[in-house]
């Protein structure tokens, strides 16, 4: 083989070697690129999977929040409905209370008027009580005066009898004096009868006055008891109204 052939073979070998080296380098770069691409793909897939997982978790969280908000809204709606019902019941109760209050106020006013009337009756009975005491005192005074009058009448009778006796002893000279003594005795007798009648009338008046006084006392006590009961009832109504 001559030199030219060796050169040609050497050049061809160099070209082939260069081609082999270039091919090996290209394969190495392709392997590196493939590995890099696989790494990028895996990272991308992992990132995408993580993103999908985060999205799933976010959607689940939103769903949970939506359910919680729905339940909260339903509970709030139930509370509002209950509050409306309670308000309706409260308004009805308030109306009933106001109606009852008006009724009790009218009843309290009526009881106050009744108490005022009873106080007026109690004052009237107290005045009658005082007047009856005064009347009984006057009756006692009239009894004393009638007793004194009876004593005077009896004394006049005794004097007239003595005068008649003395006139009878004097005979005709004492006849006129005897007539006067007889008239005085007749007047004294009539006065005594009138005093007895007056005493009987005073006794009957005492019985009537005593019975009336006792009735007034009993009526006054009954009115006082009724007044106490009415005032206690008025106080209870006042307490209920407030």
UniProtKB/TrEMBL annotation:
Q: Does the keyword Acetylation apply?
A: no
One GO BP annotation of this record: signal transduction
Q: Do the record's keywords include Transcription?
A: no
Parts of the chain that traverse the membrane: 6-25
Which residue range or ranges hold the Methyl-accepting transducer domain?
44-242
* Keyword tags: Membrane, Transducer, Transmembrane, Transmembrane helix
InterPro entries (alphabetical): MCPsignal_dom (IPR004089)
What is any one of the record's Gene Ontology cellular component terms? membrane
Question: Which residues belong to the signal peptide in this entry?
Answer: none
Q: What Gene3D superfamilies does the entry give? A: Methyl-accepting chemotaxis protein (1.10.287.950)
Protein name as it appears in the record: Methyl-accepting chemotaxis protein McpS
């Amino acid at each position: 083989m001559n030199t030219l052939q060796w050169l040609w073979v050497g050049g061809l070998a160099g070209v082939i070697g260069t081609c082999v080296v270039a091919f090996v380098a290209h394969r190495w770069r392709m392997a590196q690129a493939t590995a890099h691409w696989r790494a990028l793909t895996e990272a991308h897939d992992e990132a995408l999977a993580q993103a999908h997982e985060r999205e799933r978790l976010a959607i689940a969280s939103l769903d949970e929040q939506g359910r919680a908000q729905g339940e909260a809204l339903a509970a709030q709606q139930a509370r509002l409905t209950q509050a409306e019902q309670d308000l309706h019941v409260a308004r009805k109760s308030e109306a009933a209370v106001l109606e009852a209050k008006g009724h009790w106020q009218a009843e309290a006013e009526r009881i106050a008027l009744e108490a005022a009337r009873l106080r007026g009756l109690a004052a009237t009975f107290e005045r009658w009580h005082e007047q009856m005491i005064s009347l009984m005192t006057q009756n006692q005074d009239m009894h004393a005066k009638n007793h004194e009058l009876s004593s005077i009448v009896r004394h006049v009778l005794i004097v007239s009898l003595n005068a008649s006796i003395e006139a009878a002893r004097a005979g005709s000279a004492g006849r006129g004096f005897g007539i006067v003594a007889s008239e005085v005795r007749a007047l004294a007798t009539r006065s005594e009868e009138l005093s007895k009648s007056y005493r009987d009338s005073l006794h009957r008046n005492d019985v009537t006055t005593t019975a009336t006084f006792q009735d007034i006392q009993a009526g006054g006590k009954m009115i006082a008891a009724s007044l106490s009961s009415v005032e206690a009832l008025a106080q209870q109504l006042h307490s209920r109204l407030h």
